[in-house]
Recover the amino acids of this structure.
């Protein structure tokens, strides 16, 4: 059920802080179109400008230049209270002097809705989030997860065109975080409210988003679906920030037709199954994810392509997977082998073969 | 150089509030201060300013003021530290009671200490002469030091108490575990961390003691300080320019020290007040040290109790120490006509000023912390001026500024509010002084409370559609109601007991209690002084209790607004 309202456009948003002498650019020419009902995550390390971007959308910060358009209407002159948005804060920001019911009812009361319809709307949303039994509790009598739900209910009940999330899960423990992720996503899908979610946690970004906007130093590094971001990162930074990576220095590269390429890494010929055109040069690095690498005893080397060897420098056994650090001609290689066979674990100090599938590689520009 | 980067965009309510606050600060404190400086440029004022370098008499007055300030600040800081250290680090019975007794001098009416000390330790003192047959002269420097130290050390005590409680005991434990003994840890860990605290307390006490007017008038004898000389310039020399000259000599060091205290000493502080006690402090256990600390603390406490007992007993006997016959004559005289008007007027004016000062303080705090993006420190400083500037200076500034209508180009823009012929007998100026003198306390407590409240709570209200004014009323004010209450109570108690600015503003139509006390003390009618102090204390306790009850009751209904969810 997707609503036709809630298309957000950011047009070359720039935000500078400080005086001309000590100018800090928090957001630099950010342009982005978000479709109605879409769930978009702004992902990046702290200080990358993601929170500032969100606060500009909400109206808490005024951009130095650029425009925020909602369904084609320029919001620049509107204070936060005039914007049809709901926001969920990192600290939840529940009103400590009000009950759960009053917290959720707040936005409706401000809108001067009638008492009966407020009661109905609040009860409905509390019900749908299994919070009804807590209606008369004060926020400080709730657990972190419950507070989080109340904050979400409070933002949703006013039927905003846009839901903004400012790292709302960062104060929860790992298990609750996973649970809330699922909950937020399913509610958002059901209501079809356009949502923007700010986080530095890649798991959250991957599991929640239709699209991810990776930011770094005030600029957008890449916009794409989780799959694109993970498998086809645009830069070493993106690859490194999302998931773990091995970067192999490419010494030379030639196309061998049908998007395949032959490259040389550490003096060895290797194959790449697909690449983007302009990166076929010695100015690139090869990305191989640790879980894409197979490790075996050096004796039983098969006829695989993209195979090399290295000394096992360190090995950590986690039960369901084993993590190797190999010292090889191509550099330091991290490999994660899942469901390892007991007899096939290569001990520290021994030489191991490692190999990877050409289809699970990607060429990146060297920084 | 400023730029328009990230230019602050204020909503309507913020603009109104900011305009109002700046307007009030401008009229209630900036204008009188400017006038002081202008009048100090007059013939006799500028003579005094020049004389501060060349003239022996003037230099002597300045030196007297500084000597008194430094001595009282040193002793008061030391007293405050020792008492706070004992309170936190020594285990003994009756801790709570001692704590309360040590705080009492903060709300003490002026003269209560000075007169009680004279009765107890003066030439004919009940203790000095009565017990030891010793006839010391208290009038002058020594008497002033004793009285001011006892009156002001609680300020240092409060500061140190907060700091010592928030010192992480793990730091002491780390020192001990590294092989240092307790004395070494005290010297090398505790004291260095408190150095900004020592500096801060010292500077605060310095300002308080050079600003004090009541005690130099009553126990100063021939020891003249700037405040009492400025008072004499108005009430003896009738020379307003002369008074302005002395006032500006007092104003400049007070402001300078205040700036150092706020922007240097406070920022140097390495102690983070988390509000979370991080463990049990390491206690002083050695018998020698314990008895030393406890006997000093005990002595100070006994002295305070003795002083208040003197006030209480003195109010109900003929002449304490001379004729100890129990009587209600003092009260009969005071309530039979002499002080009725003053009691009514003082209470009434204080009650008008209290809510205004409270709201003004909260509004300023809110603007400083939440709204004003550029120049919030400047606004904070301007809001604090009312307490940074000595009362004597404010009083003279008001007398200069408001004894005539304010005119611009022959058109009256503000009526005469001070002096005999003023509107409502000069009571408007008195209320204005009450407000500007007592709102800084509310501002401070409002600021520290707001700093602990996550700003996203107010942002949440805005994102739910509430306007600036609505958010302030529905969210901000209820959340800082504790600070608001503290601000109200302080405003009331302070307005009731303030003397130094008021003394320049009372008229035959509006007599004020503290000024009546001064008159009686001047005449040596100590029985009446003590009785008036008792009346003042009772008024503060009863009305303060009522304010407390009233605000707290409202607070409950704010806590649970509109709960129709059952």
């Amino acid at each position: 059920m997707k609503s036709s309202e809630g298309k957000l456009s950011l047009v070359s948003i720039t935000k500078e802080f400080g005086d001309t002498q000590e100018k800090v650019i928090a957001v630099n020419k950010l342009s982005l179109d978000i479709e109605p009902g879409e769930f978009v995550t702004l992902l990046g390390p702290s200080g990358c400008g993601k929170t500032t971007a969100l606060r500009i959308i909400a109206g808490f910060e005024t951009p130095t230049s650029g425009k925020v358009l909602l369904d084609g209407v320029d919001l620049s002159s509107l204070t936060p209270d005039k914007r049809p948005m709901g926001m969920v804060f990192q600290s939840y920001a529940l009103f400590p002097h009000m009950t759960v019911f009053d917290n959720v009812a707040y936005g409706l009361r401000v809108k001067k809705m009638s008492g009966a319809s407020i009661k109905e709307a609040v009860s409905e949303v509390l019900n749908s989030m299994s919070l009804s039994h807590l209606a008369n509790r004060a926020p400080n009598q709730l657990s972190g997860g419950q507070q989080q739900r109340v904050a979400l209910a409070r933002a949703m009940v006013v039927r905003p065109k846009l839901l903004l999330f400012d790292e709302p899960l960062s104060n929860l423990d790992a298990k609750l975080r996973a649970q809330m992720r699922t909950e937020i996503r399913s509610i958002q899908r059901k209501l079809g409210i356009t949502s923007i979610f700010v986080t530095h946690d890649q798991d959250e970004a991957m599991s929640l988003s239709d699209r991810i906007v990776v930011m770094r130093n005030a600029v957008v590094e890449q916009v794409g679906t989780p799959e694109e971001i993970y498998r086809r990162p645009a830069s070493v930074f993106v690859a490194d920030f999302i998931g773990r990576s091995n970067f192999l220095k490419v010494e030379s590269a030639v196309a061998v037709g049908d998007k395949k390429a032959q490259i040389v890494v550490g003096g060895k010929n290797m194959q790449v199954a697909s690449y983007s055109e302009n990166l076929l040069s010695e100015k690139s690095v090869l990305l191989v994810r640790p879980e894409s690498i197979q490790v075996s005893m050096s004796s039983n080397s098969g006829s695989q392509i993209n195979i090399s060897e290295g000394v096992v420098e360190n090995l950590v056994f986690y039960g369901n997977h084993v993590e190797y650090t190999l010292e090889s001609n191509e550099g330091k290689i991290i490999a994660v082998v899942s469901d390892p066979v007991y007899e096939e674990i290569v001990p520290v100090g021994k030489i191991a073969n490692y190999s990877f599938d050409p289809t699970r590689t990607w060429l990146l520009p060297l920084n | 150089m400023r730029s328009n980067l990230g230019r602050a965009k204020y909503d309507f309510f913020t603009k109104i509030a900011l305009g109002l606050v700046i307007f009030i600060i401008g009229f209630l404190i900036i204008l009188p201060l400017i006038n002081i400086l202008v009048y100090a440029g007059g013939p006799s004022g500028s003579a005094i300013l020049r004389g501060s370098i060349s003239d022996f008499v003037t230099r002597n007055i300045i030196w007297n003021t500084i000597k008194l300030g430094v001595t009282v600040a040193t002793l008061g800081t030391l007293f405050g530290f020792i008492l706070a250290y004992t309170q936190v680090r020594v285990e003994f019975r009756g801790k709570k009671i001692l704590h309360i007794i040590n705080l009492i001098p903060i709300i003490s009416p002026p003269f209560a200490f000075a007169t009680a000390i004279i009765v107890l330790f003066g030439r004919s003192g009940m203790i000095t002469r009565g017990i030891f047959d010793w006839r010391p002269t208290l009038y002058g420097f020594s008497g002033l030091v004793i009285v001011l130290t006892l009156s002001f050390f609680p300020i240092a005590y409060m500061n140190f108490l907060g700091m010592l409680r928030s010192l992480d005991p793990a730091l002491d434990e780390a020192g001990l575990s590294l092989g240092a003994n307790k004395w070494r840890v005290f010297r090398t860990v505790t004291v260095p961390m408190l150095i900004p605290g020592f500096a801060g307390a010292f500077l605060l006490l310095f300002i308080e003691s050079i600003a004090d007017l009541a005690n130099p008038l009553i126990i100063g004898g021939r020891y003249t300080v700037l405040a009492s000389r400025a008072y004499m310039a108005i009430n003896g020399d009738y020379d307003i320019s002369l008074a302005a000259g002395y006032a500006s000599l007092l104003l400049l060091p007070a402001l300078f020290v205040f700036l150092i205290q706020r922007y240097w000493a406070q920022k140097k502080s390495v102690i983070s007040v988390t509000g979370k006690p991080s463990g049990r402090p390491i206690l002083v256990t050695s018998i020698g040290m314990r008895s030393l600390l406890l006997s000093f603390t005990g002595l100070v406490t006994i002295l305070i109790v003795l002083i208040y007992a003197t006030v209480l007993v003195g109010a109900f006997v003929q002449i304490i120490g001379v004729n100890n016959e129990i009587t209600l004559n003092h009260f009969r005289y005071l309530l039979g006509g002499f002080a009725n008007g003053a009691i009514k007027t003082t209470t009434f004016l204080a009650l008008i000023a209290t809510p205004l000062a409270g709201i003004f303080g909260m509004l300023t705090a809110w603007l400083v912390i939440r709204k004003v993006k550029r120049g919030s420190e400047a606004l904070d400083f301007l809001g604090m001026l009312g307490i940074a500037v000595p009362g004597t200076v404010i009083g003279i500034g008001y007398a200069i500024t408001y004894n005539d209508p304010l005119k611009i180009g022959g058109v009256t823009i503000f009526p005469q509010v001070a002096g005999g012929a003023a509107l409502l007998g000069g009571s408007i100026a008195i209320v204005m002084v009450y407000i500007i003198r007592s709102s800084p306390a509310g501002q401070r407590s409002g600021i520290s409370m707001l700093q602990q409240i996550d700003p996203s709570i107010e942002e949440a209200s805005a994102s739910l559609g509430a306007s600036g004014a609505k958010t302030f009323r529905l969210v901000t004010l209820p959340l800082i109601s504790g600070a608001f209450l503290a601000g109200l109570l302080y405003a009331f108690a302070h307005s009731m007991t303030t003397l130094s600015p008021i003394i320049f503003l009372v008229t035959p139509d509006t007599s004020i209690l503290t000024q009546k006390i001064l008159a009686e003390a001047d005449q040596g009618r100590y029985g009446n002084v003590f009785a008036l102090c008792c009346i003042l204390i009772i008024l503060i306790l009863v009305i303060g209790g009522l304010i407390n009850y009233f605000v707290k009751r409202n607070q409950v209904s704010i806590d649970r607004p509109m709960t129709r969810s059952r």
In short: The two ends of chain B are 58 Å apart (CA to CA). Chain B is about 70% helix and 0% strand. Confidence is low (pLDDT under 50) at residues 1-8, 273-277, 556-566 of chain B. The interface with chain A takes residues 1-3, 5-7, 9, 11, 454, 456-457, 459-468, 470-471, 474-475, 478-479, 558-566 of chain B (CB under 8 Å).
